[in-house]
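Hey Z.,

So I finally got round to the calcium ion thing we talked about over coffee. Here's the setup:
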Amino acid sequence: MHTTRTRSTASLRKLGRTLLYVGSCLLAGWTCAAGDAPRSDARVHTAANPDPWWKHAVIYEIYPRSFQDSNGDGIGDLNGITQRLDYLQALGVDAIWIAPMYPSPQVDFGYDISDYQNVDPQYGSLADFDHLVAQAGKRHIRVLLDMVLNHTSDQHPWFLEAARSRDSARHDFYCWNDGKPGPAGQRLPPNNWVSLFGGSAWQYLPAVGQFYYHMFYRQQPDLNWRNPQVERAMFAAMRFWLDRGVAGFRLDAITTLFEDAKLRDEPALGGRNAQGDPILSDLYTNNLPEVHGVIRRMRAMIDEYPGERVLIGETYVPKTADLDPWYGGALHNELQLPMDTLVGLGSKLDASSFRQHLIEAATQLHDSRPLLVFDNHDNIRSWDRFGDGVHNDAIARIVAALLLTSRATALLYQGEEIGQRTATPTRVEDVRDPIGITGWPKEKGRDGERTPMQWDTSNAQAGFSTNPKTWLPVPPDYRTVNVQTESADPQSLLNWHRRLIALRRSNSALHSGRTVMLDQTNARVLTYARVDAHGGTIIVSLNMSPRPQTITLDAPAAGLSGTHYRTLLSSPEAIIAAAVSQPIALPAFGAWVAALDSRQ
Ligand code: BGC
Ligand code: CA
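And the result:
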């Protein structure tokens, strides 16, 4: 279904599911705060390390409802996140992106915002938020917020006012249309646009005798970005948080801010999606050129703030080159980090396509930094997408190695580091995500990737909550798949992530070196070198096949100096000897990270 929505912002749901979704001074002070010994890593911006922090960062997505409940109501909250900051620091993350925690009727679990300048009482208070930012700062962790600009909740005061009458001051904040007369005298929507969440994208409101447009649920009316007041209001909301010290934003559904002014019908592509709607192009509802003006002004705004604030975009596009305009091309004046979801959110572990993709990202983006992402709160977890049912653990290590050793900013989603599984509901009555209710059984919704974080075995809620009734159930596998158990096991997936992140920080080639592809015709094994400014070289070799493979590397032919390979990390552990001679034997789904030295 991916092809049907290739230009959609909505996430790509693979595996048979419809692509559906699918204090500023604090920041500035980080590099010099008294008592904070700067680490030799990404966050220290010095003459020796001139790059901004986000170019090397590991960003960790938190779905606040499911991370840690601190007050026993079965729902995660901000104080819960604060309680777990030590864990995140030990893991080595540079920033957390918190999915929406603003006041919301929670129809789309926070992506329907009714007040952009507050915290939903379910999640805490503004004071809790400030405390979280301060505590995170002490641990060198920046806080990024999710900013939903495409739509508000239908309970937002702006929409309540807009929906009162055509003459109300806020009416033009949203996208209204009179529609067309139907055969029986009724009003029909102006065109064939369908909501990504099912049904017509137009909702009739008798009070005003008009339809409003909603790309997502009808409780999420789209804002009218052709009205300059909307931009002013939303930028003011962003400033509110920038002034409180957030390091930037992840911009939700950012490619969909504008729709065709003429409201032309979308061409039908044939067939129906999991919600039973006709599959349409998104020519007139997604990626309209007008959006770039907004993004350039937004970038100029965040650049006024000290501390290298960052804009991350939810940018589902069909091809790598399509990401380039989102960076601002050669001008680099739009998003610093549009998400590269092209391969990471796929489901095929394929050496050739990953290689091709990394080459494209290195050559088609005007030297901008790719942001790789394998998991998020909208998609089946990579454990299940890439796993073959037999070698899932080894495959998860390959995914982690690719994510954390590529020349890219890395995005991890909570639970990915411990191999949390997708726990999709088996009965429709258990489904919480509305798209799983309307789409059942073809579309079972996104609950499976949103179940609570599995911390320990202290109680049946895996330490997530003291309340036996959590908002989504904790899967029974928490007994073995949890942070505590995996922390104690040196061979665990969690410790694999920790070691990779630590190496990425401490090794200059992995931290900031260029990439040289090796063994480029090998369809089963992906091998590349990362090379620092002084020639220091790291080799990464990932066997993406279920059979052992033997590789022979010609480092001199690739312009690399060094003759001896020294294993730094391998999976399975210790399968590959510390000092390696060619040819190199890689077990099925083996991962190998080595230094290339001149001498043994
Ligand atoms: C979010 C989804 C949400 C949708 C509508 C997406 O980008 O990731 O979870 O349902 O936007 O706001
Ligand atoms: Ca709570």
